UniProtKB/TrEMBL annotation:
Keywords: Hydrolase. The lineage of its organism: Bacteria, Bacillati, Actinomycetota, Actinomycetes, Kitasatosporales. CDD domains: HP_PGM_like. InterPro entries: His_Pase_superF_clade-1 (IPR013078), His_PPase_superfam (IPR029033), PG/BPGM_mutase_AS (IPR001345), PGM_Phosphatase (IPR050275). GO terms for molecular function: hydrolase activity. This is Histidine phosphatase family protein. SMART domains: PGAM (SM00855). Its EC number is 3.1.3.-.
Length: 217
């Protein structure tokens, strides 16, 4: 999953959706279909103007409303059509969905503690992170494979799904994925393809990536 030998200079931009009311309330959203707030729409509009400067070739998105609305802002300024995939949805969190972190800790204390320790947990009876990567990463790679050399794919998805997909594409062991950290609303991460496969160029960025100048390129 770590790119092709030799590389083709392709770039993946994994962009988290804008703010929702449940984000503000710190409620687990999972696959619940929550729309953006007015602030979230403004975030998407601002970020879309920046990302358009990367001249993306393809936009794909989760089919949940918060991602669709975010992707539509980039489509509006680039003229590209968005392809939606249910495989790019957020992690299904079962009974945890709609609850705040405090409510989850109170009702599912042992499971919540295990999750915070980094153990593989079916939160609320939902999906494992590895299962999310199993469904999302192949979709990203299938679109990446169709890019022209030097092409850019923008993937509009969700924080957990983006983190697990990055971990899978970089070839990291699943227990290390949490070390990547989360993404703020409407921020993005950038993977670039080099001779040894995919590498993380930017993470949780809100401005356009700068070239790496020095001995580490």
């Amino acid at each position: 999953m770590n790119g092709r030998p030799g590389g083709r200079g392709r770039r993946l931009v994994l962009w988290r959706h804008g703010q929702t009311a449940w984000n503000v309330e710190r409620r687990f959203q999972g696959t619940t279909d929550i729309e953006l707030t007015g602030t979230g729409v403004a975030q998407a509009r601002r970020s879309a103007r920046l990302l358009a400067a990367l001249r993306p070739d393809v936009i794909v998105s989760s089919d949940l409303d918060r991602a669709r609305t975010t992707a539509a802002e980039l489509a509006a300024v680039t003229g590209l059509t968005v392809t939606h995939h249910s495989e790019l949805r957020e992690t299904y969190a079962g009974a945890w969905q709609g609850l705040t972190h405090e409510e989850i800790a109170e009702r599912y204390g042992e499971q919540y503690a295990a999750w915070k320790r980094g153990e593989p947990v079916r939160r609320g009876g939902g999906e494992l992170e590895t299962e999310v990567a199993d469904r999302a990463a192949p979709v990203v790679l299938s679109h990446a494979d169709k890019l022209p050399d030097g092409g850019t794919l923008v993937v509009v998805s969700h924080g957990g799904t983006i983190r697990t997909t990055i971990g899978r594409l970089l070839g990291l062991e699943s227990r290390s994925w949490e070390s990547l950290g989360g993404l703020s609303n409407c921020c993005w991460s950038v993977l670039g393809e080099g001779a040894r496969g995919w590498r993380l160029l930017e993470h949780n960025a809100g401005t356009l990536p700068e070239p790496v100048l020095g001995d580490d390129d």
